[in-house]
Amino acid sequence: FGNIGPSLYQYGKVRGVTDVTAPTAQGVVEYTWMKIYNGKTFNACSNMPRFGHAKLLDEQQMRHLMSLLLDPKSPVNQ
Questions:
Q1: Using one digit for the tens of pLDDT, what is the confidence trace for 1-54?
Q2: Closest by alpha carbon to 64, among 41, 42, 32, 38?
Q3: Domain ranges of the chain
């Protein structure tokens, strides 16, 4: 499970994401993208790596991570 932050289990489900393309999910999608791209955007003292900013993950890898976290069919949200 890790020890840096909260569990990501049912990340999308807990946030009410049933369709990532729905206008109601836009805020969660944007927040999640920015959090992955640069974890210090919302919390300067965050221990989360700046995956996009530091080029630790490329855009396609970040999109895959977004799908894992937000897609209702993802094992994370079951």
A1: 567 778 899 999 999 999 999 999 999 999 999 999 999 999 999 888 999 999
A2: 32
A3: 23-77
